[in-house]
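name: query_chain
kind: protein
chains: 1
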Amino acid sequence: MNSRFLARMDARIAECGPGEARDALVAERASYLARLGHVDEARQVLSDLRLKWGETPSARVSSLVHIADGLCHYYTDMGPEARDRFLRAHALARAASLGDVVVRAASWLALVHYGAYRFPDMVRSLDECFLGTPHTDPSTLARSCLVVAQTIHLANRFDLALPWYRRVRLLSAETEDEATISALMHNMASIWATNSRNALLGGPPTRDNSRQALAGAMSTLNFDDLVGLTNLSVFTPLLRAQVCSIEGDCEQALLLYENHLSALSLKAVQGWQVWLLADKGWCQLQTGKSQLAKESCEAGKSALTSDMHVDDRAATLTRLSRAYAKFGDGAEAERCEVEASACWRDFAALQELMLSVVESSRGVRWMADQRP
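structure:
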């Protein structure tokens, strides 16, 4: 592992004598281990801290342990347990007037809300982070700025997102926070790919292109290998598969899907997984594997849920519509197309909401006025 951020944390811990301050840093180190993808190691550290502080709990150590535990859940399966732990940390830190921990927990809650498309809740958490200065440290600011950048970018305004991405890079460089730099690279590439996919399949037009996404994915892979990050390793080959499919290279996309799609089991991205399954079926169809294509499309159709991200649902339905048309099932193709059109309209309205809530945020406006 070649993490400079972790090396700096180790030096700070070594300088601390035994007690609350040292164990608070140890809990923060566990958080970073989880962010790097070393969840088992992080959980062992947290187990030791709970055992040590069980009878005489410290509000600071306990709240930081909750954050680290939430990150272990987040980087294992992105399930609801992560949000629960962040909420616990937030409540405990607020009750103990630990302003720096409050804003840290709020920044993670903002990320969880973004992932669930709960944009008004996301902005409330961001306001707490940005307006909580001087309690907000550079890493927390960087993470919060990244949530803003992603939201604006997903709303198809990369031009407005770019200054926020620059803030993330500068703040992350200040603390040598490799995990945030990796997240920046991956999420930017992922949204480039998503916007390109959406435009290709009947969604809002975009200036983003799949070549940017592919370059970003490869840069992320190289950076993560250099630093020793494993937390996003399951995503990068699937992002490449999606880009290959968008560009019409179905053979390469199918190879990547066959090698990597079964490894994706994260609860929070099950909707994206359904889209990838339908796209795999499309690639099978384009490469002459008609029976396998029918099986994949049927599996994708059966896995559709109403709580999927609306753009993932729209893209899935569009792929299915075009596949069923080639299978000769005109009625099913039309049904999927009609539902997809309604979903694309809903997504366009959601993009307007994304921009509206960000633009109306006092915290975001305050941060935008600061020098990048």
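note: Residues 258 and 368 are 43 Å apart (CA to CA).
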